[in-house]
Amino acid sequence: MGGGKGKWLRRWEIEFSNSRDCMRALRRGEINPAQALGGAAATMKKYIGCDMHKKFSVFVTMDELGKLEAAVKVANDSLELSSYLKTLTPGTPVAVEASGGWYWFVERLEEAGMEVRLVHPLEAKKRLAGRHKTDSIDAAGLAMRLRNGTLPEVWIPPANLRDLRGLLRARLA
After folding, report:
1. Could you give the CA distance from residue 123 to residue 108 in angstroms, rounded to a whole number?
2. At 47, phi and psi to the nearest 5?
3. What pLDDT, on the 0 to 100 scale, is given for residue 51?
4. Same domain, yes or no, for 95 and 129?
């Protein structure tokens, strides 16, 4: 039974590594496979859950392995939000609940190059049910659902259609 890990390491060694020293360090537990690969392989894909409110938003990042980073609370003013979004890697998927003011928030995320996923709030509440809910727990739950592929998404209209809807709303008012 103990040969399973060694078998995996031998297959990994043949496919990915030419360095004996690297494999020895990997077997001793001094480095992990992502570090052994180095470069682009060492950076894992991130998934971000965002619990948005009127005055602030809470962002929680989860990596491919399910490890959570600390929650980051960001004010929703243009300067602080844009400076935080600059720290994120473009193309990172971000899950945001569809609340009353999601339009401008999604536009900011799209301008920063994020891959925005809009979440159905009622379905998200059902799937993330719990007695002790906080903003960081909600954001972490969204990140986890995004990572697992079980996020209850809704359609985001393209920017030009959102603008047209805004014009129609203003005209009807």
Report:
1. 24
2. -130, 130
3. 93
4. yes
Tell me the whole-structure pTM to 2 decimals: 0.71
Residue 72 burial (CB count, 10 A): 16
Greatest distance between any 2 Cα atoms in the chain? 72
End-to-end CA distance of the chain: 71
Does a structural domain hold residue 173? no
Give dist(CA 168, CA 145) in Å, integer. Answer: 34
Higher pLDDT, 49 or 12: 49
Give the residue numbers spanning the domain of 35. Answer: 3-42
Q: How many residues does the structure list for the chain? A: 173
32 and 53 belong to one structural domain: no
Q: What six digits make up the tokens of 162?
A: 């959102």
DSSP SS3 for 92: coil
